[in-house]
Design goal:
single chain; alpha/beta; seven-stranded mixed beta sheet
Length: about 220
């Protein structure tokens, strides 16, 4: 499915978020607290926009790996930059040693982990003590009127847009994946259980977007 939608993934993200997804990725990269020369990993990197934000922060002397299990997505990412190492990897069995990175991020990909706890534990494992783990994800707003708008947008408009792309399955999947993903407080608990200290989250875009971060023990 992800290979099929790779070619119009960026366009659909911009349409569905009015282009705001770039700002949310910038904020996620800020929460990683990287500096020049650091080494970072973006998991479930998709077409690479968050990994590119990380690269801007580590500079020419730093290294960023953008990993994904969709070669179609990685092909798009490779066309954007050769400064990031784009690698195939399963987020639930990352092929990197313990304590390899100053930070690991995932943007709009954690809800696609078949085993969320295992995926989070893998991100924590590959980050050195004192390093950062950041999760950027869509969440279901709880307050009106945005909660009502969210239901209309995700239950009706997004699947309609999916039909226009010729791949309705993918954009039927999106709303269902958001609804079954843990709420912010519950996700914070899972991040703590995975081995993070000082877990915090920020809600933005009226409560539609959650940015979680924590420090590896």
């Amino acid at each position: 499915m992800f290979d099929r939608i790779a070619g119009f993934y960026d366009l659909m993200n911009s349409v569905m978020t009015a282009g705001l997804h770039h700002r949310w990725r910038e904020r996620a990269a800020d929460l990683a607290r990287l500096g020049p020369g650091d080494r970072a990993l973006d998991v479930a990197a998709g077409t690479g926009d968050l990994a590119l934000e990380l690269k801007r922060r580590v500079g020419p002397s730093g290294d960023v790996i953008g990993s994904d299990f969709s070669e179609g997505m990685l092909d798009i990412a490779r066309g954007k930059s050769a400064e990031v190492a784009w690698e195939w990897a399963d987020a639930q069995a990352l092929p990197y040693p313990d304590n390899s990175f100053a930070a690991a991020t995932v943007g709009f990909g954690a809800r696609n982990f078949g085993d969320l706890e295992r995926g989070l534990a893998e991100m924590v494992r590959v980050v050195r003590p004192g390093g950062r783990v950041v999760v950027l994800e869509i969440t279901v707003p709880q307050k009106r009127p945005l909660s009502s708008f969210f239901r209309v947008w995700f239950d009706r408009i997004v699947p309609l847009l999916g039909r226009l792309t010729g791949d309705p399955e993918a954009y039927d999947y999106l709303p269902s994946s958001v609804k079954r993903f843990p709420a912010p407080e519950a996700l914070a608990g899972r991040l703590a259980a995975a081995g993070l200290d000082d877990v915090r989250w920020i809600l933005t875009a009226g409560g539609i977007i959650a940015l979680h971060s924590g420090t590896v023990k």
